[in-house]
Amino acid sequence: MSEEEEQLEEEAEGEIALLGISPEPARGKRWYVVHTFTGHENKVKASIERRAASQGLGDTIGRILVLTEEELRGTRRGKRQVRKHKLFPGYVIIEMELDDRTQHLIRSTPGVTGFIGPGRQPVPLERAEIENILSTLGGEEAPRMRVAFQRGDMMRVISGPFENFHGRIEDLNVTKEKLTLLISIFGRDTPVEVDFADVEKLQ
């Protein structure tokens, strides 16, 4: 990833990290979904913002969202391994006033393949639709964290009193970042609660 791409990623992640993303569009604007080449979402976002400003359309283009979430993939050498990834690869959500000028600006932006709608014609999202999309971020809270493991996965404890024990996940508490492992102790499966940071997934 180039330095420019890394900067765009950081800017997008910072925007989504803001609390209280409101589904209510600004007066005169509606939410639209635009399809892009996968991997070009942040470039498209930056390009639309830049071109809108240069063409005097800044007032007609509002928020542009590239939705991301964090995935906890376990730990390595005692450090949490967190990866950010896009919730909707190949899609950008734009708050805008739709007219011939803004539609042309979006369609002519490099990396854009069209709007989402019948025949790729722009159709605004209903309030319930945008609320459902934003709910994937945890509503009006910070972006949620999800984990790359699930019930039934085999884990190894890497720190604490049960270090080097192996166990199968019986339960997960993502909010508290804790899980319950069934560990064989004296020949019996015993439930043990450990922190996410104290385990790693067995390959």
Task: Note down, in words, how this protein is organized.
Strands 11-10-9-8-12 form a five-stranded antiparallel beta sheet, with no helix packed on it. It folds into two domains: 144 residues, NusG, N-terminal domain (Alpha-Beta Plaits), CATH 3.30.70.940; 48 residues, SH3 type barrels, CATH 2.30.30. Helices cover 22% and strands 36% of the residues. The protein has 203 residues and is of the alpha+beta class. It is built from four helices and twelve strands, in the order αβαββββαβαββββββ.
Structural category: alpha+beta
Distance between the termini: 27 Å
Biggest sheet descriptor: 5 strands, antiparallel
What's the mean pLDDT score? 80
| Assigned CATH superfamily of the largest domain | NusG, N-terminal domain
Cα shape: elongated
Low-confidence stretches: 11-19, 138-143
Give the CATH architecture of the largest domain: 2-Layer Sandwich
Describe the strand arrangement of the main beta sheet, using strand numbers: 11-10-9-8-12
